[in-house]
Design brief:
4-stranded mixed beta sheet, globular, 6 helices, alpha+beta, single chain, 4 strands
Amino acid sequence: MAGDHSRSLGKGSAAPGPVPEGVIRLYSMRFCPFAQRTRLVLRAKGIRHEVVNINLKNKPDWIFEKNPDGLVPVLETSKGQLIYESPITCEYLDEAFPGRKLMPSDPYERALQKMLLEHFSKITSVISKALKEGGDLTALTAELAEKFGKLDEILSQRNTVFYGGDSTSLIDYMMWPWFERLEAFQLKELFPFPIVF
């Protein structure tokens, strides 16, 4: 139950017991890019955690007690507090736990990262919708190429190595799971510069 590669719990499975003190629990799915965002932040900050993978095609009834939509990621604290939605879980982890802060301290830079995430969310929604409907992503090539082109332009204007600056920040962790999947989605050629995997 405690590892990223633990078996997935599905319909009829018992809910895990209480979260141990000093640990945070992540309800996840190994291949979900939204849950991967939270896993990346947990690792980047060195937060002690356990992972409970959920079978999203055959969900256990109790997952709806953790998130009314039955989706992952969901964080659960030892106090029974529940936090869900990937941007919210990641921001919570950055604010609630010590270590290097992943969000900039400057309010304007924080706003820039949030605006960039909003822009990037339009790309993820196009890809997600096409994949859920079993659609052909190549039909969306022009639209996605335009959106990725805008991201490239933003990075060029910032003149930094990462979207968040000269070192990885929260926005980079929020975007990475999708970049990592470009090749699997057969979309790698859409990006105007080489992506190193």
